[in-house]
Amino acid sequence: MLPVTLRAQQCSERRIAKRGNVDMNESTSNPQRVIVMGVSGCGKTSVGERLAEALEGRFIDGDTYHSATSVAKMSRGEPLNDDDRAGWLTRLSELVREGRDNRETVVIGCSALKREYRDLLRGGDDALCFVHLAGTREVLLERLKARQDHFFKGEAMLDSQLATLESPGTDEAVTVNIDASLDDVVALSVQGVSQRTRHAS
Ligand SMILES: Nc1ncnc2c1ncn2[C@@H]1O[C@H](COP(=O)(O)OP(=O)(O)OP(=O)(O)O)[C@@H](O)[C@H]1O
Ligand SMILES: O=C(O)[C@H](O)[C@@H](O)[C@H](O)[C@H](O)CO
């Protein structure tokens, strides 16, 4: 049996294998809260799940916290507005806070389109790290069209989200271009989060 301190140290070392052509040998020793953000179809769920795995944390799909009214609205192809998103963002910021208080690594997929939404989420943890998955309308539409069985409907909703999006600058987020393989997008996200965490500490 290893001494407790040594076991704890080993647990906190996150060794990540090389994936695609990006070296993922990053190690992060502190639990952290991460939001994977961007418009519909950018890959929040696909990338978020893999990022959480790489950081040895838990993934939460923010979409599962929308109210039934919001889901029904989106199913009819109607975009959400600030009022529709307010309660949802508050709930997600509570999950961020719980993760911080429990010293847990939590990765949440959430569109977080406006700065004021991100401010609300940061209320749960001022060290909250955002990874913005950014892509052209063309790539996004291609991905949405290829996807089945999802409540998101139509180009109009994508256009509304693109119009609403206030792209975060480097002060707020790590931005990763989604026009690459999933492996590479995940690897760049891991690298971005690790670098940001190192700079913040
Ligand atoms: N880098 C990638 N290369 C190819 N396909 C991808 C990539 N990333 C995601 N996809 C695919 O694109 C589609 C959209 O991804 P995903 O559902 O993860 O997006 P999302 O941001 O969670 O969407 P939403 O906000 O609408 O729930 C999925 O079918 C997914 O498999
Ligand atoms: O802020 C929003 O308008 C919503 O979060 C959307 O991004 C949905 O979750 C997504 O469109 C589902 O596909």
TrEMBL record:
Matching entries from Gene3D superfamilies are given as: P-loop containing nucleotide triphosphate hydrolases (3.40.50.300)
Question: What residue range is the signal peptide?
Answer: none
Provide the alphabetized UniProt keywords.
ATP-binding, Gluconate utilization, Kinase, Nucleotide-binding, Transferase
For the protein in the UniProt heading, the enzyme class is: transferase
Q: What is its EC number?
A: 2.7.1.12
GO BP annotations listed: D-gluconate metabolic process
Q: Name one GO molecular function term.
A: ATP binding
Q: Report if keyword S-adenosyl-L-methionine is assigned.
A: no
Tell me the route in metabolism or biology where this protein functions.
Carbohydrate acid metabolism
* CC annotations in GO: cytoplasm
InterPro entries documented for this protein:
P-loop_NTPase, Shikimate/glucono_kinase, Therm_gnt_kin
Indicate the segments annotated as coiled coil, or none if absent.
none
Reaction(s) this enzyme catalyzes, per UniProt: D-gluconate + ATP = 6-phospho-D-gluconate + ADP + H(+)
Family of the protein in this entry: Belongs to the gluconokinase GntK/GntV family.
* Protein name per its UniProtKB record: Gluconokinase
| Protein species of origin | Chromohalobacter moromii
